[in-house]
Amino acid sequence: MFNHDTKKLSRRRLLSDGAAWVAGAGLGSVAGTACATDSIDMPFANGRRHMIAFPEKRELIVLTTRPPQLETPFEVFNEGLITPNDAFFVRYHNNGLPPPIDSDKHLIKIGGNACGKPFELSMLELKTQFKPVEVVAVKQCSGNSRGFFSPRTTGGQLGNGAMGNAHWLGVPLKDILARAEISDKARQVTFQGLDFALMGGGDFVKALDIHHAIDGEVMVAYQMNGAELPFLNGFPVALIVPGYFGTYWIKHLSRIEVIDHEFDGFWMKTGYRVPDNDCACTEPGKNAASTRPISRLNVRSFITSHKDGARIAAGQAQEVRGIAFDGGQGIREVAYSLDGGQSWRGAHLSEDIGRFSFREFKFGFTPDPGAYDLRVRAFNRSGQSQPLEALWNPSGYMRNGVESIKLTAV
Amino acid sequence: MLNTQSLVRHCLAASLMLASFMAPPASLATTKSYSAPADTVQLKASALPGFAKASVCYACHSAEYIAYQPPTAARPYWNAMVNRMKKVFNAPVQEEDIPEIVDYLVKTYGNEQPNEQPK
Questions:
Q1: Domains and CATH numbers, chain A
Q2: Could you tell me which residues come within 8 angstroms of residue A313 by beta carbon, excluding any fewer than 6 positions away?
Q3: CB B97: neighbour CB atoms within 10 A?
Q4: What is the ipTM of this complex?
Q5: What's CA A354's distance to the chain center, in Å?
Q6: How close is the nearest chain B Cα to the Cα of A163, in Å?
Q7: Residues of chain A with C-beta less than 8 angstroms from the C-beta of B93
Q8: Are B37 and A32 within 8 A, CB to CB?
Q9: Residue A57 in this model has a pLDDT that exceeds 90
Q10: Which of residues 5-44 of A touch B (CB under 8 A)?
Q11: For A230-289, what is each residue's pLDDT tens digit?
């Protein structure tokens, strides 16, 4: 059985190791790596990771340095329902990161062949000419938890920390597009940010169907948790697609195009596709007969208060806490088991702060001496849930099996 | 060679400099910039001819993309990735270098490693 918790893993100071390693690599200067002295072992083969504080970020798990891909240490999810900006995960696709961005000069250009009236929008116009809206929504990377796939799948080998829940403030995309004189032929809307591919191929452009783009939920956000967005989360403005995987949440949003056809760029036509069937899964090791673009988050739940493998005190009441979320129906129920899934009871659900948000759950038990295998399984308001054993797909996306936390009461 | 204590001091000084640099509250900032920390992972040295040629990978990304793949990653995967880098991302890889680069990658990071012991 897999486990998700990284903190239980031996977290080691590697100051001396680090220095020796740098010397071994033959680098002339230690300055750039002087802080790269913490590491963490993810619970899968080849899972050693550095922990480094990037600009505006606390020490996070480094998946890649260039372009930056940073994962949130799992213990952050037990500190509150909102993921702090400096702990929020980071995922870029190309290493052409934008040059310094002056938000007063930043423009979003709206156009495309199904846009009757192309125009540009400054940040001042965005903030003053539209009625702002707010939403609390989970952003989760499509490949969150990929490292736990069995058999392993290639790609970014993430633990469970490529997700976060934030309070977003911005403007409905629908209101912006209302000025664009969209033609009847419009089929999709594409989105691009200031980040770019270094050699001119493979720019990160994503597309949403037109009916989704104007449904009122998709949003252009300029604040995250009451502050400007961190640079690495898309300063000064990002697309927010509540309920959808993070791949659509374009950072440094600078270009919106309404088009009369289905967009066929690499990141839609080849990347970020899942098996085109009900479970978005295949038999382990097998390819899909056909695929579709990844879309809505599936249901997930995690215990955050207890770490897999921990020892607890027999006879002492335990309060177990965790988070559950889905693609926007909202969580209706979280069931828990103390015996590896043989019997289930209902956990208490805390306050609902929005159907796109993490939802807190709690339950208690007083253990006798012995072994416990805690599992949690969430259900959303349309009855969708999590498979008892994780499903598989070739790209390692959408992992959402019931998690197991093994505890020993002594 | 720096000892442990001097590394700690160095790290602390760097953090403090960053803190004072970022002193104005984020809500007042109108300009933000980013510069990447130095790479902390390098490609593993090897006698295979593809090792030197694989340094072309650094042009667009750091080495973790390669180094953190699961040890089960097979030759077709590495071949597909190198070809994707060239064909989709215009990586400056010479066509004739691709077989040697793929050979180095699969034997150094994939399932053709000499003493591979998958967990």
A1: 6-91 (no CATH), 107-293 (3.90.420.10), 300-409 (2.60.40.650)
A2: A367, A409, A410
A3: 17
A4: 0.90
A5: 17
A6: 20
A7: none
A8: yes
A9: yes
A10: 15-16, 18-19, 23, 25, 27, 30-37, 44
A11: 999 999 999 999 999 999 999 999 999 999 999 999 999 999 999 999 999 999 999 999
